Amino acid sequence: MKKTESEGKATVKQSGCALSRRKFLFYSGTALTTSTVLLQIPGVLKAREAHVATYPRKLIGKMSQLKLDQPVNFNYPDDGLNATSVLVKLGQKAGGGVGKQQDVVAFNTICTHQGGPLLGSYNKEYKTLGQCPFHLTTYDLTRYGIIVSGQAYQSLPQVLLEVKGDSIYAVGVMGLIFGRNNNLIG
Ligand code: FES
Questions:
Q1: How far is CA 13 from the centre of its chain?
Q2: Closest Cα to residue 173, out of 12, 6, 1?
Q3: Smallest Cα–Cα separation from 165: which of 73, 76, 69, 100?
Q4: Which domains, from first to last, does the chain contain?
Q5: How far apart are CA 165 and CA 20, in angstroms?
Q6: 64 φ, ψ to 5°?
Q7: Does ligand 1 have an atom closer than 6 angstroms to the CB of 134?
Q8: Is the shortest distance between the CB of 26 and ligand 1 below 6 Å?
Q9: pTM of the entire predicted model
Q10: How confident is the prediction along the chain (186 residues), in pLDDT tens digits per residue?
């Protein structure tokens, strides 16, 4: 797998015909965010498929300005439907966490069950988002947004992060944002 950056875009490329479901979901969030193109490689008679998923690369915060258990709001991957997200320093190692302690994570804040708003529901004691005001689902931010309790059956979409120096960039989404059939079209 090869990852390249150009002109403010983060691009993930996968060569070959097969892509495991796990990898596919991890990088794309949804089948519709990828496109299939044909690569004609010199010296190779048969064209091969490549799956490409492209997300905007967006500066969402500075490490030096993050405060423990104080979420910072941002929109990602665009300013469209249900893009509200939070960046938070949990103070303990987390799945997908960045920074020296791997404790900085970001998540979309729309409940995956029926779209309940989770903004402002961060619980610093348990490192969770929720309870959702609609049907009480709570999500664990230390474990990729899995459901702790409630009616939902899909984890909260996690915003994938990269750190360069002091800057924190959003570069993708793991999981489908509620209300969309494509993370990249709001
Ligand atoms: S909408 Fe959040 S639990 Fe139902």
A1: 17
A2: 12
A3: 100
A4: 2-56 (no CATH), 58-174 (2.102.10.10)
A5: 32
A6: -70, -20
A7: yes
A8: no
A9: 0.77
A10: 444 444 344 444 433 334 444 444 444 444 444 444 455 555 555 555 555 558 999 999 999 999 999 999 999 999 999 999 999 999 999 999 999 999 999 999 999 999 999 999 999 999 999 999 999 999 999 999 999 999 999 999 999 999 999 999 999 999 999 999 989 876
Tokens found for residue 159: 């915003």
Residue in 113, 172, 174, 178 annotated catalytic: 113
Strand pairing class (34-39; 48-56): antiparallel
Q: Is the CB of 137 inside a 6 Å radius of any atom of ligand 1? A: yes
Tally of CA atoms within 13 A in the half-sphere of 152 that contains its CB:
29
In DSSP terms, which residues pair with 52 in a beta bridge? 13, 35
Residue type at position 96: G
